[in-house]
Amino acid sequence: MLALSRHITRGRLFWLGLFALTWALSTYSFQLYKLLDARWVIRFPSALQLNLDTEISNFLDWLVNEAHFGLFSFRDLTRAIAWMIELPYQFLRNLLIEGFQTGIGDGAVQIAPSLSWIAVIAIAVAIGHYARDWALALLVGVCFLYLAVFGQWDSAMITLASVLVAVPIGAVGGLALGILAYRMPWVETLLRPILDLMQTVPVFAYLVPILILFGFGPVAALVATVIYAMPPMIRVTIVALKTVPEELLEAGRMMGATPRQMTWKVLVPAATPTLMVGVNQVIMLTLNMVIIASMIGAGGLGFDVLASLRRLDIGAGIEAGLAIVVMAIALDRASQAFSERRMSHPRTGSVVQRHPWTTTVLAIVVVTYLLGQIIPAIQNYPDALKISTGAFWSDAMAWINVNFFDTLETIKTVLLTTLLLPVKKFFAGIPWFWGILAMGLIVGRVAGWKLGLAAALMMLFIAASGLWGEAMVTLYLCGVSVFIAILIGTPLGIWAAQKPGAGRVILGLMDTLQTLPSFVYLIPVVMLFRVGDFSAMIAVVLYALAPAVRYAAHGIREVPPQLLEAGRMAGCTPSQLLWRVKLPLATPQLLLGLNQTIMLALSMLVITALVGTRDLGQEVYIALTKANAGQGIVAGLSVAVIAIIADRIVHALADKQKRRLGL
Amino acid sequence: MDKPVLLDCRHVWKLYGANAEAMLANGRIPDAAALAEANVIGAVRDAHVQIHQGEIFVIMGLSGSGKSTLVRCLSRLVEPTAGEIEFDGRDLLRASEAELIEIRRKKMGMVFQQFALMPHLTVLENVAFPLEIQGVDRATRRESAQKVIELVGLHGREAYYPRELSGGQQQRVGIARSLVVEPDLWFLDEPFSALDPLIRREMQDEFIRLQNMLRKTIVFITHDFDEAIRLADRIAVMKDGVIEQIATPEDLVQNPATDYVADFTRHVARAKVIRAQSRMEPATAERFAGEVAHDATIESIADEVERADAPMKVMKDGKVIGQITSRAVIDVLVGRG
Ligand SMILES: Nc1ncnc2c1ncn2[C@@H]1O[C@H](COP(=O)(O)OP(=O)(O)OP(=O)(O)O)[C@@H](O)[C@H]1O
Ligand SMILES: [Mg+2]
């Protein structure tokens, strides 16, 4: 008894009590409702419900149909934006796929064909070589060749055209806003909360209003893509400009540079390597979103995946999915190489000698154009040589399902019954009023009572929006997925940090996993486990694993060597060194990893609505299919609320830990 | 000093902190304790400096003593909290942004501790950069840049990028860049501190060689006393934002104004600082072994004087002004008197 009471400090008592009370209320809420005959115990009183969703929908209706800014209406504005995006997009489509024509319909006359597949591959190779070396050129070339050989060319080119339109807009827009924020502090103050919110609102949520404003089609998809991909560029730009050495700025000022010269001749060039990291992010996010935006009319590979998921056509799904993977790898490696690229000495000589690559590529474009008129195989990759792997994948999946059905099913059942369902029951049973209070207490205890109050109010918003049940399902799925991701990811990260050989493989794999668009994760999961919470959880774990691994590895590696030496000199065994020295010191990093894992898990969770979860994501997805902007935005905000609360809790924990370690 | 004053700075203050301005309202002069109490950092406190045409003025002090801040006030990279600064007869603190740009473009140059080279530009482009900012055409600026590059001994490396150069070479680029506009006033903020001792020595020699050719007015920051006495015409010693003393190196060693300066100069090799004229006596000997210049350091004449069998004449403007004995030289060398 004495030994026990020693372990129960006041802090522990608080958590223990909170948990016990929550558990009791969760288990007996139904009885409580019966006992008190008070329906409000399990249901938020409908009289108090907010009707924010209808109001948002009405507002959007008004915006689209009536809003007028004197000279032009809101609809004119969206039309103008649409036109500005449509123009380059159509040009790229013509260039890459359709060829250029005059006239419409039957009267159309072809002026010029699209770039031949050989020319596109040549350009890709040239870019690879320019960005780094022959190895990269080869990699990029093989990736594009893959698209041609495996019959994914046309879809891939549609996706590429979207990426090529969205990336410059996102990158340049982000740069401009970033510069503005750097130059004028009030712009940053204004942007910061918007950026924070954008990071946490799930993508589906703003697909809905965009769908309403721009209509179904590639333009809406591109607008959504740009909005999705721009915030990181703004952030990176602000950071990049702020980290330009102070001395360099002073040097610029001492030379008498005007503010404009400061920006364009000193700041931006000096920050270019970091800015390129931002561009790489923009490219990868763009690809991710272009795939997701197939739901609102972006064609291409994303549409193929979506269509085959809906048909449950295993082979086609995997084929398109692999094409996305290949494309993601090519884009990522090439753009990363650009960010690491160093200025090289300019060549001398004639124009041709100075620009050997440009010349070669131009020559290939011209030659393939001319030959393509005579030999169709040069213009379009011949169908006869295409390899379709669809049947192969279908067979492979069928084989796995036949031979491993029992194993997979057992795993699924065991995990479902021992982990997922009990947790689900626990969360689903929590009465809303207690949930709000408990969240306030948790946040208050960890991050201060002001934030605790804010958290409680935010939870109240969810309850008042009639989304309590869905939010609890989100919490449960997110919690379980993050738990498993951390359980797998942390040991992997520690292993990667301790063994350099294994580390390279693991971290390389994680890098690749992180470049893959989130859609891709759904494919194998659905194939193996069909739909439901379990499939969703697996997809979320896969998607959110990378940060858990990375931060763990980073945290362990960053432990100061003197401390390790001190530990060794004190006679620590390797395992003592890990548990007593490395892990405690790595906790702040581990917590940051946890934070990232939660954020990724939430964003993926929304996408798993496609495999039939019953959470806030599903609510957003339904809103999307019904084009109900209000419903989508409110559900999206609810996800954001959960993300923000989680973020604050974890950050407060990390800060506490850092202070304790004196970092 | 008989030379005209190029830069005149009076009562210059730079305070960091919330109520910096209020501390100085109505001409108040807060002391260190008052500043500390108000949580204000006195980076520069009540500085008076006059820089004369053609001199090398060295600012010395430990890390955090306010050297960089003072120099940045003099160039108005940092806005002083209070004070007056007159540059070339103009009130620098009232100059508009456009005037300031003009002054910096044409009349000031600055060399930085970490070199501050543009990473994306070659040596030639870096050196030509100030001219590019001024809108000078490409051919002219390349030509001017080429000239200074040769002056600092970087011929043949025009097409290199900064990262391909050693620290010493990078600082040569920094020097070349600050010289390309032919500034009247040349600021150097610890230009050699980031370099290895051997390279630093070499760069000091290089600097002396350049100065002998160019005769610029120079404000030079260092925390290395040996560097200061090698280069300086006059030295200002700073401590906690306050200038403790401004004097020639010799004066500083022989007549330190405060205990701090005395402490600071105690371990200096005095023979490097003290000059013949301050240890001479009336020329009474019948026979002289030779002659030395009045402003030669004891270190530079010690060997000769000590070996001679008679005193040596001390000369100024071709006239004998005294004699110096081996005894006097040895006194300095062993630190007597
Ligand atoms: N922007 C600033 N905000 C607040 N305090 C500052 C700022 N800049 C300088 N200081 C403070 O002013 C004091 C003088 O700094 P300064 O950089 O001038 O010293 P320094 O003599 O050049 O030192 P070092 O030899 O390290 O370069 C320091 O205490 C420093 O912390
Ligand atoms: Mg300094």
Q: How would you describe this structure to a colleague?
A:
The complex is a heterodimer of chains A (663) and B (337). By secondary structure, chain A is an all-alpha fold. Chain A has helices at residues 2-7, 10-36, 52-65, 74-98, 117-131, 134-149, 153-183, 185-200, 203-214, 218-242, 246-254, 259-292, 301-311, 314-340, 351-354, 356-374, 376-379, 390-429, 432-447, 449-464, 468-498, 500-515, 518-529, 533-557, 561-569, 574-607, 616-626, 629-661, and strands spanning 68-69, 72-73, 100-102, 109-112. In chain A, strands 1-2 form a two-stranded antiparallel ribbon. In chain A, strands 3-4 form a two-stranded antiparallel sheet. In chain A, helix 2 (10-36) packs antiparallel against helix 19 and helix 7 (153-183) runs antiparallel to helix 8. Chain A is globular, with a radius of gyration of 27 Å. The mean pLDDT of chain B is 88. Chain B is 37% helix and 24% strand. Chain B has 2 domains: 5-107 and 183-268, P-loop containing nucleotide triphosphate hydrolases (Rossmann fold), CATH 3.40.50.300; 272-333, CBS-domain. Chain B contains 13 helices and 13 strands. Classes of the chains: A mainly alpha (663), B alpha/beta (337). The complex binds adenosine-5'-triphosphate and magnesium ion.
Question: What topology does this entry show?
Answer:
The complex is a heterodimer of chains A (about 675) and B (about 325).
Chain A: H1 2-7, H2 10-36, H3 52-65, E1 68-69, E2 72-73, H4 74-98, E3 100-102, E4 109-112, H5 117-131, H6 134-149, H7 153-183, H8 185-200, H9 203-214, H10 218-242, H11 246-254, H12 259-292, H13 301-311, H14 314-340, H15 351-354, H16 356-374, H17 376-379, H18 390-429, H19 432-447, H20 449-464, H21 468-498, H22 500-515, H23 518-529, H24 533-557, H25 561-569, H26 574-607, H27 616-626, H28 629-661
Chain B: E1 5-16, H1 20-23, H2 32-37, E2 41-52, E3 56-61, H3 67-74, E4 82-87, E5 90-91, H4 97-107, E6 108-111, H5 123-134, H6 138-151, H7 167-179, E7 185-189, H8 197-214, E8 217-222, H9 225-231, E9 234-239, E10 242-247, H10 249-254, H11 259-265, E11 290-293, H12 298-307, E12 312-316, E13 319-324, H13 326-334
Parallel strand pairs in B: 3-8, 3-9, 6-7, 7-8, 11-12
Antiparallel strand pairs in B: 1-2, 1-4, 4-5, 9-10, 12-13
Helix pairs in contact in B: 5-6, 5-7, 6-7, 12-13
The complex binds adenosine-5'-triphosphate (ATP) and magnesium ion (MG).
